[in-house]
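ENTRY TYPE: paired fold submission
RECORD: A
CONTENT: sequence, then structure tokens
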Amino acid sequence: MVRFCGRHALLSGLRLVFGLNSAVLILPFGALDACAAQPALPTSAASMAIPVTTIQKGNFSGVREPLQAIIRTPAEWESLWKRHASIQSPTSPLPAVDFGAEIVVGIFLGEKSAGGYEVEITRAELKDSVLYVYYVEKSPKPGGAAIQALTQPFHLVKLPRTDARVVFSRISS
């Protein structure tokens, strides 16, 4: 649907929709303002929620150091996946991502000496031309039982394609 605001835009819109010439079009509503009853458009401070789709989340990865990854090309994706899946035997196939329409964002906590650590990307939003990616880190509870093995918690997600600058924001759990 096309939205027109103001008398000039309204007239242009009517000409577009009905093919009317401006000389033929006479409106008896001289003071008509097509936007008078419309709510104001969001200001630049408004934010827009961005859908997040999990590709893979887990505790074992070939990425052994903390990393916040933003992947915008197939070559970058293949390189990260090869590194991530290097500890698997057999190696998992590369998940499909349409880089014409999507990007991949990932958080790797790095190598931990025990289980009980976790990371989760909870949401994303676009605000002031910046893509904010919010995530939660969890640690084992003091005195709680946890597997005694090296772990590498991670979360990989797909988001709609944007060239906006990405900012990772840790939120408390």
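RECORD: B
CONTENT: sequence, then structure tokens
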Amino acid sequence: MNPISRAILVIVLVCGLPRDGAPADLKFVLIKREVVESRLKSFSRNDTERESILKTMFGEAGCAEHVSEFQVKHVKQPDLICVLPGASQDVIFVGAHFDHVDAGDGVVDNWSGASLLPSLYQGLRSNPTRHTFVFICFSGEEKGERGSEAYVDGMSKEDAARSVAMINLDTLGLGPTAVWLSHADPQLASKLAAVAEALKLPISGVNVEQVGSSDSEQFARRKIPRITIHSLTQKTLPILHSSRDKLAAMQLDDYYSSYHLLAAYLTYLDESLGSPAMIDAQTSK
């Protein structure tokens, strides 16, 4: 996360989240906890090595044929992109930045998000998807969201029109799952709350617009619905950009709970987002 001030966070209880109907009979694949934690623990303090580790993890998850790099001006490391082709060209983005500041090890901010992407991809690829999923590990977020800015600037009007959602992961595992609710698309927030309720997993709204920004805001410029999922509270905020950002700061039960929720959420979005015509066409096959 890219802090811009130290203002007090606004806490919104989960009862304030809008809801649609809870998903019924939602089937999704979970990667074993030891694999998810092993990927978290594989961090490096060198951003170039981080990009290389993520590329290896995507390959191990099955994305070797669909992984690519997107060069970013004024940033040494490229964005790393893994594509999961779907039945349609409508795209759901799932992103997290992998760069970090010099203080601490950058495990929380944001290896916690980036290292989840291969596991989320691995679970989704087990079954055909309606949407094409694009997983992006962004570079240069700590330098002003340069990686996401460059990627979004490179999208054509057609690309933006086919983009139905951007799910951004930033700073997970400091506690239970939270949402930057004031900067979340209401439909995406509603669906996340519905999944959390169905799975009996914790979720709350913690607004961070006066504390920082994140890569999701670049997608908002192109009117792409977005949501940022994190774990910050007023108590844990000082860990960011400090020597306390280490593996020891992670609450591993909460981290796997966030992964569990996200794995189900992406499956639910794939089933429920999109035009009725697209959904009907897939149902009739």
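NOTES ON RECORD B: The first strand starts at residue 2 and ends at 3. The chain has a mean pLDDT of 90.
STATUS: closed
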